[in-house]
Write a structure and sequence with these properties.
The chain is of the alpha/beta class and 365 residues long. 41% of the residues lie in helices and 15% in strands. It has 15 helices and nine strands. Strands 1, 2, 3, 4, 5, 6, 7, 8 and 9 form a nine-stranded mixed β-sheet that branches. Helix 3 links the parallel strand 1 and strand 2. Helix 7 packs across helix 8 and helix 8 runs parallel beside helix 15. The chain is globular and about 60 Å long. The chain starts with 5 loop residues before the first helix and ends with a helix. The relative contact order is 0.17.
Length: 365
């Protein structure tokens, strides 16, 4: 705006103020424009989620339908996410952690209770998933299920000609430099612990030492410790075997029909990722509107089709047109057919420190 003389600027302001006030008195219909009500219309919501874990179009639609601006940030592991939230380095509203990390966040008073009156679409989530959530959110006060699945072995049928039904194949020397492991302390130790018949939540130092030794013995055979990259490497035929989340397995099979997924007989992790709200969330009501929107069946379907991770949204599952996917044993497994399934639990500060120290030993060898 061009500068004016102080006198003209002041006179203009006084006249404008008089006109606006007169209009407000004359017409009650204009009152909404005279107060501060309209200035906060929409607002924003700050979301912290896993990489490539949402259909970007759903964010666009949320913004269009609500007028709320989404500020979106991504993390690669729970262990990267947690310190950032704990330190208050950024004021996030909605976060999507995994089971055991939600338990840790509840115990450390980092989460706000959710007002489910503001999330009517949570009725679309199957009750079994809320029941499963009680393992880490005992009263279902802090979390709304978003995705669930198993961890298993993805293998290339042109490179592996034997039955894949045990974690032990990841220690087979004939697959040296053709094995991909998860670059995540709990996921890596889960494999080694289950291989030895132990709980993946053990704090027994002898059991953990045996798992550490197994991972160190396996290390010369491992091509790489990866997270998201396991998907692309397996699609490209760069490895024969990889530890992968079931949702990624569905996507990889679409891209490369030579890939197959197996849950080992020794048992595995059944995981659940859920929406939570930070205790210091600057936009709690907007956070609840965001979660409610993500629970809407058409939006949940869009996210399932985009990320291919299993949805606990029963209403969305009914909308899946592809019968093969709707009945997929990878996407929606009958968990009763497997034994020794567990969900990760938070093991306390000392437990975390113990696992991290042993993982450091594995990585430094």
């Amino acid at each position: 705006m061009k500068k004016t003389t102080h006198f003209h600027h002041t006179l203009h302001t006084v006249i404008l103020f008089w006109i606006v006030c007169t209009l407000c008195l004359v017409s009650p219909l204009l009152l909404t424009g005279c107060g501060s009500q309209g200035s906060k219309e929409g607002g924003e919501v700050i979301v912290y989620n896993w990489g490539e874990y949402i259909d970007p179009e759903t964010i666009d639609r949320f913004e269009e339908e609500t007028g709320i601006k989404v500020i979106y940030d991504e993390f690669e592991t729970n262990e990267i996410m947690y310190p950032k939230l704990e330190a208050g380095a950024a004021a996030y509203d909605v976060i999507c952690p995994s089971d055991y990390m939600i338990q840790k966040m509840i115990e450390n008073d980092l989460l706000a209770e959710i007002n489910f009156d503001n999330i009517p679409n949570s009725k679309n989530i199957g009750q079994q998933y809320f029941e499963q959530s009680r393992q880490f959110d005992p009263e279902n006060k802090y979390s709304v299920p978003y995705c669930f699945g198993t961890v298993g072995i993805l293998y290339n049928k042109t490179m592996v000609d034997e039955t894949v039904d045990s974690w032990s194949i990841l220690w087979d020397e004939k697959y040296a430099d053709n094995i991909l492991m998860q670059d995540s302390v709990r996921d890596a130790f889960m494999v080694a612990l289950k291989l030895n018949g132990f709980s993946m939540n053990t704090l027994d130092e002898n059991e953990l030492a045996a798992a550490r030794d197994a991972l160190i013995a396996q290390k010369p055979l491992v091509q790489a410790y990866v997270i998201d990259q396991v998907r692309d490497k397996m699609i490209g035929g760069e490895a024969a075997l990889g530890v992968i989340y079931s949702g990624e397995a569905i996507y990889t099979q679409r891209e490369n029909p030579d890939l197959e997924y197996a849950v080992p007989r020794e048992g595995t992790n059944v995981w659940i990722d859920s929406w939570v709200i930070a205790k210091n969330a600057p936009n709690k009501e907007n956070a609840e509107r965001f979660i409610d929107f993500m629970c809407r069946e058409d939006i949940a379907l869009m996210n399932f089709e985009y990320i291919t991770y299993s949805t606990p949204n029963v209403a969305a599952r009914e909308l899946i047109e592809d019968e093969e996917i709707r009945n997929s044993k990878i996407a929606f497994p009958d968990l009763d057919q497997y034994e020794n399934l567990e969900t990760f639990q938070y093991l306390g500060t000392d437990g975390d420190a113990l696992y991290n120290a042993l993982w450091k030993e594995v990585k430094s060898e």
